[in-house]
Write a structure and sequence with these properties.
Layout lengths: L1 H32 L1 H73 L4 E5 L4 E4 L5 E2 L4 E6 L10 E2 L4 E12 L3 E9 L2 E10 L4 E12 L4 E6 L4 E4 L6 E9 L1
Antiparallel strand pairs: 1-4, 1-12, 2-11, 3-10, 5-10, 6-9, 6-12, 7-8, 7-10
The protein binds 2-acetamido-2-deoxy-beta-D-glucopyranose (NAG).
Length: 243
């Protein structure tokens, strides 16, 4: 806008200079040539003045447009600044969320195991409940599972998932298995078959555990399991998320 005003001032001052020059010429000419020349010069001057006033009108119009443009630009600028501020706020919120989830990831221990029963042949419980020891460790990240005792001990409070598959060769007998938490039975499954071929029992549970709770598989009294080096009978578990 300032540029437009300066242009206007410059043009007006140029016009003033031009008018003065014309007047001086008129004086010089009128002294030399007389009144006919004087009349024609006056006509020229009024034509030029008309032209100049037209120019001034035109410049005013241009100036108004320029002022409107500036207003639009200023409004755009405000909107842009608001958007920038909003996206900076978003950015801060995103960084905070990232920091929180990084802390969560750091806080959640990595816990997952799988182990095979590791017996070649049959294992029988006899007249007591037998805590099964899956001694052939396949995976034991976090060492929460003990291949000596067969117990999984929750390293943190949270939600865990446990599953198993066990096998026996059934010839007119039953097989059974149970899963226990802190010595308390959570499920008891059985199967009966007579063909002497392999029969599998498989299931799983999602458990909410407190830190230090134990989970294991138990062979109920009078039952039997069978395994070979093929890992027919396995016990697995992992932490889903801490609570
Ligand atoms: C059973 O698991 C053990 C231990 O991971 C492994 O070395 C072996 O190859 C597995 N057996 C079969 C038949 O996959």
């Amino acid at each position: 806008m300032r540029a437009a005003i300066s242009l206007l001032v410059l043009l007006l001052s140029m016009c003033g200079a031009r008018t003065r020059t014309t007047r001086t010429e008129v004086q010089a000419e009128s002294q030399g040539t007389g009144s006919a020349a004087e009349v024609s010069t006056q006509l020229d001057i009024s034509a030029e003045l008309k032209e100049l006033s037209d120019m001034v009108v035109e410049l005013r119009v241009m100036l108004r447009y320029t002022q409107e443009d500036v207003k639009v630009l200023e409004a755009d600028n405000v909107a842009m600044k608001q958007r920038l501020a909003a996206s900076e706020t978003d950015n801060i919120a995103m960084k905070q969320r990232l920091a929180v989830s990084e802390t969560e990831v750091e806080a959640a221990p990595k816990v997952a195991f799988s182990a095979g029963l590791g017996v070649s042949g049959s294992i029988e419980s006899g007249s007591y409940y037998l805590d099964l020891v899956f001694s052939r460790v396949i995976t034991n990240v976090g060492q929460a599972y003990s291949s000596k005792t067969g117990f999984f001990t929750a390293p943190v409070s949270g939600v865990y998932y446990f599953r198993f598959t066990v096998m026996d060769k059934l010839d007119t007998r039953y097989m059974a298995i149970s899963m226990c938490k802190n010595g308390v039975q959570l499920m008891w499954l059985s199967e009966h078959d007579t063909d002497g071929q392999r029969t599998y029992l498989s299931s799983g549970l999602t458990l909410q555990l407190e830190k230090g709770d134990v989970v294991n598989l138990v062979l109920p009294t009078t039952y039997r399991l069978h395994d070979t080096s093929s890992n027919h009978s396995t016990f697995s578990g992992f932490l889903l998320f801490p609570l």
